[in-house]
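Thread: "does anyone have the structure for this chain?"

Original post by V.I.:
We have the sequence but no experimental structure in hand. Need at least a predicted one for the grant figures.
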Amino acid sequence: MSLLERLNNDMKQAMKNKEKDKLSVIRMIKASMQNEAIKLGVKELSEQDELTVLSRELKQRKDSLHEFDKAGREDLVEKLRTEIAIVELYMPKQLSEDELAEIVKQTISEVGATSKADMGKVMSAIMPKVKGRADGSLVNKFVQQHLS
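Reply from O.Q.:
Generated one for you, tokens below.
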């Protein structure tokens, strides 16, 4: 089942169950996917493009969560945590820290990185490998640890 079909089925179910938060998030994801398809000039997004949209949606919410948390807006923080949990339902299974560390080590040796000056080279090689399966800030942290 494609992501769009899953979203449509879950949207119908959320309507039946009167789950307003879930319905709202699913509609936002679908709108973002449609906007991306229009921007790319295609009728249907590839799995990679769908993953890009989901990652972007998740990152926006996590960034907002951090800002609202700093500002002490608990009402908005709780709402965003709910939205993040819903978006994460559609993301692929996340890599464990051990799996991620292994990919980082492997990529560092592939590109021949030896110091923090090679950070950009390593990050640009790793991110396509872990797209949607690991948070960029966590990847960055592991790369820094292994390069120092």
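V.I.: this helps a lot. Residues 113 and 122 are 7 Å apart (CA to CA).
O.Q.: and The radius of gyration is 18 Å.
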